Amino acid sequence: MPQVQRVPMRAVKNVVLIAHDSRKQDLLDWVKYNRPVLREHRLFATGTTGGLVQAQTDLPVTRFKSGPLGGDQQVGAKIAEGELDVLVFFWDPLEPQPHDPDVKALLRIAVLYNIPTACNRATADFLVASSLFHGEYERIVEDHAAKRQAWLAGQGRR
């Protein structure tokens, strides 16, 4: 049985919003539609997306750098540090991005740390409509450091 850690999430979530250029309007429409719910939480976003959300909704947004300029990596680091609770990332599956490795790394980190992740509008709607979004919750995160140590011990190294 893998070792796990229980990570508490407060009722007020730290929600990060990201959208590729071709998906920004879709994300803005989603934020406007869900504004009453989102204003109860703390919002974060990569640079351009955050500026648009703040300008068009008057919701306060803490902004990271633009995704291609390191913002995706900043978000991934904050997820790994336990500072972000929910990722809403409307990415474009049909448009190659110059920072595709960063996008894949961010999605990998979100899965690794078991944070709720929505990559399209339907999933994002289900996420914010869930009673779990509005209350406290404990995420279960596998202790990957312990797993790695066990693997190294099995290899005769430490």
Outline the secondary-structure elements.
Elements: E1 4-9, E2 14-19, H1 24-33, H2 35-38, E3 42-45, H3 47-57, E4 61-63, H4 71-80, E5 86-90, H5 100-112, E6 117-118, H6 121-129, E7 137-142, H7 144-154
Parallel strand pairs: 2-3, 2-5, 3-4, 5-6
Antiparallel strand pairs: 1-7
Helix pairs in contact: 1-3, 4-5
Domain MGS-like: 5-158
GO cellular component, one term: cytosol
Family: Belongs to the methylglyoxal synthase family.
List keywords for this structure.
single chain, 158 residues, alpha/beta, Rossmann fold, methylglyoxal synthase activity, EC 4.2.3.3
Fold and architecture overview:
This protein is an alpha/beta fold and 158 residues long. The chain has one domain (10-140): 3-Layer(aba) Sandwich (Rossmann fold). Helix content is 43%, strand content 20%. It has helices at residues 24-33, 35-38, 47-57, 71-80, 100-112, 121-129, 144-154, and strands spanning 4-9, 14-19, 42-45, 61-63, 86-90, 117-118, 137-142. The strands form two sheets. Strands 4-3-2-5-6 form a five-stranded parallel sheet, sandwiched between helices. It has a two-stranded antiparallel ribbon with strand order 1-7. α1 packs across α3. The protein is globular. The chain starts with a strand and ends with a helix. The mean pLDDT is 92.
